[in-house]
Amino acid sequence: xxxxxxxxxxxxLLFTILLVNPISASPTIQKFKEAPQFYNSADCPIIDDxxxxxxxxxxxxxxxxxxxxxxxLDAAYIRGSVAAVLSVLQHSSCPExxxxxxxxxxxxxxxxxxxxxxxxxxxxxxxxxxxxxxxxSRLISSSIRSALDCPLNYARSYLADLLPPCVRRVVYLDxxxxxxxxxxxLAATDLGRDSVLAAPEYCNANFTSYFTSAxxxxxxxxxxxxxxxxxxxxxxVMVIDLSRWREGAYTARIExxxxxxxxxxxYELGSLPPFxxxxxxxxxxxxxxxxxxxxxxxxxxxLCRDLHPGPVSLLHWSGKGKxxxxxxxxxxxxLDALWSPYDLLQTPFALDx
Length: 353
Known about the structure:
The structure is a single chain. By secondary structure, this protein is α/β, with parallel strands linked by helices. It has one domain: Spore Coat Polysaccharide Biosynthesis Protein SpsA, Chain A, CATH 3.90.550. It has twelve helices and eleven strands. The strands form three sheets. The chain has a seven-stranded mixed beta sheet. The protein has a two-stranded antiparallel ribbon with strand order 5-11. Strands 7-8 form a two-stranded antiparallel ribbon. β1 (about 65-70), α2 and β2 (about 100-105) form a beta-alpha-beta unit. α9 (about 250-265) packs across α10. The longest helix is centred in the first third of the chain and has 18 residues, at about 5-20. The protein is globular and about 55 Å long. It is found in: Endomembrane system. One of its GO terms (cellular component) is Golgi apparatus.
């Protein structure tokens, strides 16, 4: 038998074996480049003993002078999270005074996620907190987009329980955004005497559309916003006073509305409406520059969108379309080019400069 015919037969045999017993594809492991180290400017406050006594870790993790940032962390959005962290550090005047509090699902490989962050940011002060989703899973109702039903989307409602009690204020950020301004400015937002959280408000949005006709037609439920000027706000960027949150038991208030949703469908949009029900009209408004949201399009098609008029400090790809997915597919939107410089993904053929 000639060598050529032998190769053909072996190829046919291999094809038959694969056809009968296909090899399952292993999950793609994303690797990221190491980010440059960023240093404090000369006038940054010194993190020393300005912390509570109930901390066994470094003083910075409970420091009142540090900027505390909370984000969720999972394999699906890790690329966005890494880009967001880089953007925060790059535009901060005091990057060494920033602490990241990452929340990961109990079912995730927290060790792998922690290693990914450490490899890209070996100097970063951070911790990973495990979120047991069983308590919230029973309260989640299906929404208009399956991605919104992920239990980790609800972790923002449990930050006061997950983070150490000594952390009194935190800036919550989604993973599909980048900052182009100093986060310390946002973190220093004045919450006044009694506001629990601050965020950009959008009072021109059709607020009634966030709830069903069953909600508005109910004589009792429709009075929920009777004594407040309720406006839409996006929960992907918030400054939260965790001390006031704990004192007011706001997690329980959100859960009460989620339980109501299980009995009677009063909204369609995942974790957002419970926040609106509890806080709309009661938050401290923040300049719109701190959440140029909607760059991911709507929840169905993810079409390209332009920026809102005005200055920009934070770009947010809320919606179905994510910049990394559109870039990989070769169909980016014009504004996705603003996200790309923060992408630390190590491609197989990338050469170090």
